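Recall that a protein's primary structure is simply its ordered list of amino acids. Everything else, from secondary elements to tertiary packing, is in principle encoded there. The following example makes that idea concrete.
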Amino acid sequence: MPLPHKISTLLYCFNERDEVLLIERAQEPNLGCWSPPGGKLITADGESPHACALREANEEMGLVSEPTDWRLTGMVSEAGYHEQAHWLMFLFELTRPLNEIPPPHAEGRFNFFAKEDIPDLKLPVNDGEYIWPAFWAHRGGFFSAHCRCFPDNQNDWRIEQSSTAFK
């Protein structure tokens, strides 16, 4: 049986100390794991990734923003994630600091973390294995990656586009 495609956004928000905001997921997918806030596009409405980022930031964090407040920093596709779906994820970084922790939400609770603390958190497998390292390596630039997911988590990752930031 063919797997469905799911399209989502991940929102990378930093405070003035360059700590990243993460949510401990209270729902599937990734229940109990820390990940950037975000969510699925409303594909039936033809919602764009930028519109989804704005909507999810407002719904989950109470953040009112404009498309110019967000920069597309990455695109990740996962084929056969947990043998349940194919995912296409658009990674956005907020271009201004977010200095307050949003209140708990039905999706989970929030906290800021320093870059060096992230590997010690309970993360979704693909986030820890590849997405976080790719995000840090390309922060300020852009990357596109594809993962062929296997049941034993021996995943096959490929960078399809890579542009690092100008220093």
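The chain has two helices and nine strands. The chain has one domain: 5-163.
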